[in-house]
């Protein structure tokens, strides 16, 4: 079997190549360059050249052929330009997911196949299995990686069955320490190399500076939203009433509108048997969820498509500020100020709403608050950023999201949901987020994900990914 390894110069792809070579396969390495511009990047100008040098030394050490390909034009067109377009619309794309779908397992894979490869291997921490479908043809499954701190299946959530048929993930059953140990034992030049961070193939960036290559700065207001706003907002009242109406009869307490967790955990799984069912899921229940959830299936099914659309929409903020004149100082100089508003206050300025994302905490540079400020909404039309104080701010939590029909992607093409169908799956909306119990509802106007517990920072443009226990079933753009 002839295998092309995407050798990046990192320890993960190096060990992937080593394992395949030791298993007796005909292996060759292919290093791809995808980015030249260093605008906004926080590393040296020639980092890719260093990566290539290390990758070449690894290939020489293992004893496999080494090739180079420049895919920077494809990467700019299919990943970076998409990023700029999404940010300009106030959405937050995930370039790593796009890079895998558009570059590693498309443009790069086509190049590898032209060089004679039967398969393409990468250093992703995930596993692949093959089963027989109803028609007897192979069906490929993506499973979470064995290492709870390094599972990277989320980034492969847009791969197709055709792409998976040619993909190999040699280190999916290993932990990071095991990978490091194998690299050190083989004396690979990448054994102690730090993991790459930031945007795929671009690296760590100062995002506003990076985006300013195409998106112009434009000053606007930062508005803090107070709790009083939600007391009179009709849409928030609808959300609260509808969610409470979906609750099972005889529930001990009303549905919460605010998430109970305040930070992501670094571990996606735990070995504690007491928490195993809630963290890893319970195979006794559909999709590995910890139970049937807090909502009644019959009540969920009774909601109209319009109700679901409204339930999935975030609160829109419309706070007007009136000015008043007053006299200040000994000379009674006339000045202008905003009248106090119980719903909110203008507390600062920003350089462009397109540079901020829902749930963002850093980069606001506004003090005078006991707890951290979080971005809860961005209005591109008025160029306004809305923020809330603290992890438990009402504007930071949502219970339902929608994926439009054209953005629904089934990895398991053999088991898609039909219109009107309801299933229980475990879902994450960010990499490293612990899997969350949720009810998925397929309607004509999209797939709706209703979480058992409100989620913090649901962000348009990101990917929601659903799992059945350890298997990734599908994904879609929020």
Key words describing this protein structure:
478 residues; alpha+beta; Rossmann fold; Elongation Factor Tu (Ef-tu), domain 3; 3 domains; nine-stranded antiparallel sheet; five-stranded parallel sheet; 20 strands; 25% helix; globular
Write structural notes for this entry.
The protein is 25% helix and 26% strand. The chain is of the alpha+beta class and 478 residues long. It folds into 3 domains: 2-211, Rossmann fold (3-Layer(aba) Sandwich); 220-224 and 317-394, no CATH class; 253-313 and 396-477, Elongation Factor Tu (Ef-tu), domain 3 (Beta Barrel). Strands 5, 6, 14, 15, 16, 17, 18, 19 and 20 form a 9-stranded antiparallel β-sheet that branches. The chain is globular.
What Rg do the Cα atoms give? 25 Å
Structural class: alpha+beta
Q: How many strand units?
A: 20
**What is the 3D form?**
globular
Mean pLDDT: 90
Low-confidence stretches: 266-278
CATH superfamily of the largest domain: HUPs
Distance between the termini: 39 Å
Number of domains: 3
Strand count, sense and barrel status of the largest sheet are: 9 strands, antiparallel
Topology-level CATH name of the largest domain: Rossmann fold
Give the number of helices. 12
* CATH architecture assignment name of the largest domain: 3-Layer(aba) Sandwich
